[in-house]
Every structure is written in C-alpha cells, then in structure tokens.
C-alpha cells in the first residue's frame, strides 16, 4: 500500500493496476501567469504568540482562519508557530491508497481524523472552462471513463487526470464523511478536502461530487449510501429535464415508466417498478407547462464533468400525445370550471375575473421564461454562479405575480363556498283579490356540485 504523505516529489511508486500519473503538491497553471500577491492585499491577523500555549497560534479565533485565508509567512506575528499555513506546508493527514470492491481505487484514513481537520489538497492543472470542455470531450472520445476535473471558480477548473495529488482517488458518496472547501492561499484560490465528522483509521474517505450532468451516458452511482441518488448527477437540472422524472406518492418513474391511461375511466397499464429514490424529493420539470427554474447560489466547490463510455447520447424518450397521465385516482376540477360551481351571478363574475387574471399571469410567466431561457442555460453549462441579477429579478417578479393570482383565485372560491352571497330579494305580484301587499321570495344562492337541487 502507498501512503500519500510519504513522497511529495513528481515521481511516486504506485501499486500495480493504478493508471500512471504525475504527482504534484501544488497547482500548476496552464496558459496563464502565476498570480502574485501584492503587499497591500496581504491579510494580516491580530494573533500573538503565547509561549505558555504554543498550540493556540492562529487557530479557530484567528481572523484569517474565520475567512478561510491562510497567513502569509513574514507577515504573521506568530512566526514559525503559526498554524494557519496548512496548504503551504502540505500538512496532510495520513491516508492510504487501496482497491475498492467495484469502484476502482480509493483513499482511506491511515490515522484517526477529527471533524473539521484538513486532510489533503486537491491539486492539478488549473485550466479555463473552455479548455475543461475540450478535455472532457477528448477524454470521452478516447474511452476514458474517469476524469478528475472539478470547479475552482466561475472561469477555471482543476484537472487532476494526468497531474495531481492523491485527492484524485477520493470517491463520491451521497452520504460523505468529507467535503471540499475553498481557501485563499497567497492570493490564490485552492481547494482542500476537510473532514465533516470524526473519521476512524481504516475508513474510506468520500465527498459529494455534486455532479453536473450535461448529456451523454448516464453513470450509475455505486456509493451504497441509504440516500443514494442511483445515478451520478441525478439531482442536477439537466438530468431531470432529460429523463422527465415524474412522482406519484413515494414512487418515482422515468418518462418510459409512467402509467398511462386512455381515459379517466380506464385502468392504468401495468406499472413498471419505478426508480427508488433517496430522502430528498426530485423537482418535476414539465416542458409543456413551463419548466421550473432553480435560482439558488452554489454552496460547494465541486463540479464534475460526466465522462461516459461513449460519445453518443441515448435516444431521448418520446411523449405520447394522445394519451393522458393520471397521477391520482381522485377527480380534479380544472381552474377554468370554478365559476360553474356557483349559481350566484355575483360569485360567478368574481371567480371568472380572477380566473382571467390567473391565466394572464401564467401566460406572462411562460413568455418570460422563453425570453430568459438562453441566459439560464448558458450559466448552467459554464459555471456555478447565479444568473445575472436582472434576469433573476424578472423571473422572481413574474413568479410572485403568478402566486398572487393563484391565491386571489383560490381565496375567492373558498370565500364564496364558506360565506355565500347575501340573499337576493325579488318582488312578485300579489293576488288579485284580498288586497294583499307585495310578496317576497328568498332566492338563496346554492353551490351546485353534481346536479341541480
């Protein structure tokens, strides 16, 4: 077995069966100059060395530690005792390379590791997003299934496929014991692997790749966690849009497995066993009614490319236009039929008005989505940053208008059901004899459901 902390040189002795690579202990920049830290930009903490407690130099309370910034040698008052230079000094935890069962090579803890402890830096070649795309396509074309590319920032990636540290061997898990964190070291952004929890010696290290799927072959996840997503990238928007995940209670189906109905009275076709899901529910993206847009910032440094076994994507499932999908055995009332439930003219007019406003808001929302779709897709492919503020504000405003229209309509329906309109009085002609005065009839509004009274 090979210990990753034994040799920091470019040449290392690898066990039989490991694909050769060049070992490096810090990133190499391809096609760009090494960023030099200006003296005015150096972050200087206020820590002071305490001879009675040498282990307290630049730890949890250090301002630089709090901001994920390493201290710069020569500018820290703690001098050589500074404990906030772990990336620069390669202060890695002891780890061991080993062969897993069915998942290639992995990395395990060769000592007890505490929660929050720095384990190892993810090193490799720092390349642009354009170069990362080219490389991923080249790796796929040459049948390379395992590519070690993760996101560094909006415009750069780290490729550890041919040059990298032993962090490249850490496998994915949907229930990981490690996580990636970005740190600023001498003015540069670097990625480290940190323990999420206490890890005992002999335990395999794993972190969530937060895999982004952009097409091509789907790769099954083999982590074995209880909340496993079944496929790498199954929770990414691209994967869900392509596979049209549909839910019915606790069962999930792909578009090929959705139970189909010829009419509301027919029984469904035999249901194929669905894909078992994890703890987190999957968003449904329905192309015919306007797709759901997720506008949320990323909270991870990791973003991997899908390198499948072939370059030709599978044929996309086709919808069957003349069949209906019934997600519930209960009969539903369409929004446009709400007004027909009431016999009161005033109630019908009010509900009809709100139905019109709801339809207008829905139409506007769909129209705006088509306008901003190119911007959304462009950001989704290229980086993990949120979409431009103007685009997000437009989308949020349209959504709020749609929610308000929905609320107004449903509130009107509930109000008219729970509190019927005041009684309407009409004057009828009295009998011709007896001189009786006018009579009144109480036209009490009725809620007509299933037939007239």
TrEMBL record:
<keyword id="KW-0539">Nucleus</keyword>
<feature type="domain" description="SET">
    <location>
        <begin position="93"/>
        <end position="210"/>
    </location>
</feature>
<dbReference type="InterPro" id="IPR046341">
    <property type="entry name" value="SET_dom_sf"/>
</dbReference>
<keyword id="KW-0949">S-adenosyl-L-methionine</keyword>
<keyword id="KW-0489">Methyltransferase</keyword>
<dbReference type="InterPro" id="IPR001214">
    <property type="entry name" value="SET_dom"/>
</dbReference>
<dbReference type="GO" id="GO:0042054">
    <property type="term" value="F:histone methyltransferase activity"/>
</dbReference>
<dbReference type="InterPro" id="IPR006560">
    <property type="entry name" value="AWS_dom"/>
</dbReference>
<feature type="compositionally biased region" description="Basic residues">
    <location>
        <begin position="313"/>
        <end position="329"/>
    </location>
</feature>
<feature type="region of interest" description="Disordered">
    <location>
        <begin position="304"/>
        <end position="332"/>
    </location>
</feature>
<keyword id="KW-0158">Chromosome</keyword>
<dbReference type="Pfam" id="PF00856">
    <property type="entry name" value="SET"/>
</dbReference>
<dbReference type="InterPro" id="IPR050777">
    <property type="entry name" value="SET2_Histone-Lys_MeTrsfase"/>
</dbReference>
<keyword id="KW-0808">Transferase</keyword>
<dbReference type="InterPro" id="IPR003616">
    <property type="entry name" value="Post-SET_dom"/>
</dbReference>
<dbReference type="GO" id="GO:0032259">
    <property type="term" value="P:methylation"/>
</dbReference>
<dbReference type="GO" id="GO:0005634">
    <property type="term" value="C:nucleus"/>
</dbReference>
<dbReference type="GO" id="GO:0005694">
    <property type="term" value="C:chromosome"/>
</dbReference>
<protein>
    <recommendedName>
        <fullName>Histone-lysine N-methyltransferase ASHH1</fullName>
    </recommendedName>
</protein>
<feature type="domain" description="AWS">
    <location>
        <begin position="40"/>
        <end position="91"/>
    </location>
</feature>
<feature type="region of interest" description="Disordered">
    <location>
        <begin position="428"/>
        <end position="453"/>
    </location>
</feature>
<dbReference type="Pfam" id="PF17907">
    <property type="entry name" value="AWS"/>
</dbReference>
<feature type="domain" description="Post-SET">
    <location>
        <begin position="217"/>
        <end position="233"/>
    </location>
</feature>
């Amino acid at each position: 077995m090979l210990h990753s902390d034994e040799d920091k040189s470019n040449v290392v002795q690898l066990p039989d069966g490991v694909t050769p690579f060049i070992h490096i202990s810090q990133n190499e920049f391809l096609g760009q100059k090494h960023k030099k830290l200006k003296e005015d930009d150096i972050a200087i903490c206020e820590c002071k060395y305490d001879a009675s407690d040498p282990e307290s130099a630049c730890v949890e309370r250090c301002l630089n530690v709090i901001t994920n910034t390493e201290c710069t040698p020569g500018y820290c008052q703690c001098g050589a005792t500074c404990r906030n230079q772990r990336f620069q000094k390669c202060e890695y935890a002891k780890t061991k390379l080993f062969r897993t069962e069915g998942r290639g090579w992995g990395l395990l803890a060769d000592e007890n590791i505490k929660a929050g402890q720095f384990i190892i830096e993810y090193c490799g070649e720092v390349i642009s997003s354009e170069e990362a795309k080219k490389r991923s396509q080249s790796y796929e074309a040459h049948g390379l299934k395992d590519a070690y590319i993760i996101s560094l920032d909006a415009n750069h990636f780290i490729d550890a496929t041919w040059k990298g540290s032993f962090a490249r061997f850490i496998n994915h898990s949907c229930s990981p014991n490690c996580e990636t964190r970005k740190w600023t070291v001498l003015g540069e952004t670097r990625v480290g692997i940190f323990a999420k929890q206490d890890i005992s010696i002999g335990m395999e290290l794993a972190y969530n790749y937060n895999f982004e799927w952009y097409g091509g072959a789907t790769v099954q996840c083999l982590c074995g966690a209880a909340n496993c997503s079944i496929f790498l990238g199954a929770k990414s928007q691209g994967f869900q849009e392509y596979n049209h995940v549909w839910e019915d209670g606790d069962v999930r189906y792909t578009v090929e497995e959705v139970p189909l109905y010829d009419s509301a009275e027919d029984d469904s076709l035999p249901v194929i066993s669905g894909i078992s899901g994890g703890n987190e529910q999957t968003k449904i993206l329905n192309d015919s009614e306007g797709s759901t847009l997720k506008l949320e910032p990323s909270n991870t440094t990791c973003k991997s490319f899908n390198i499948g076994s072939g370059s030709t994507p599978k044929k996309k499932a086709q919808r069957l236009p003349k069949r209906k999908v019934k997600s519930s055995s209960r009969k539903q009332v369409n929004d446009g039929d709400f007004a027909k439930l009431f016999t009161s003219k005033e109630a019908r007019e009010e509900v009809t008005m709100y139905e019109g406003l709801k339809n207008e808001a829905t139409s506007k929302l769909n129209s705006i989505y088509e306008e901003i779709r190119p911007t959304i897709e462009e950001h989704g492919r290229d980086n993990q940053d949120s979409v431009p503020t103007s685009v997000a504000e437009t989308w949020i405003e349209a959504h709020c208008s749609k929610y308000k229209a929905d609320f107004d309509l449903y509130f009107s329906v509930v109000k008219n059901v729970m509190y019927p309109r005041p009684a309407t009085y009409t004057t009828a002609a009295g009998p011709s004899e007896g001189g009786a005065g006018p009579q009144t009839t109480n036209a009490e509004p009725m809620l007509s459901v299933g037939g007239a009274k």
